[in-house]
Task: structure prediction
Amino acid sequence: MRTIGILLVILGIIALAVPSITFMTTERAVDTSFLTIDYQKPHTLILNPIAGIVAVAAGVVMIVAGRRRGVV
Result:
């Protein structure tokens, strides 16, 4: 339970630090026997800061709950 909490905290901090991730994919526009035309298409993933805050809070709760369970 603590490892999942730690992962949530790390992912939440990343979501807060990086507001969006952009990556490119290559797609083929024209493909004939002697001519090929490729183009790159951008894709953007927008990370909501509220989701990052919720992930950090849930991770902290899971870490604290795992610590209490381990002591008892």
User: Anything to note?
Assistant: The radius of gyration is 21 Å. DSSP finds two helices and two strands in the chain. Strands lie at 20-31, 36-46. Residues 2-71 form one domain.
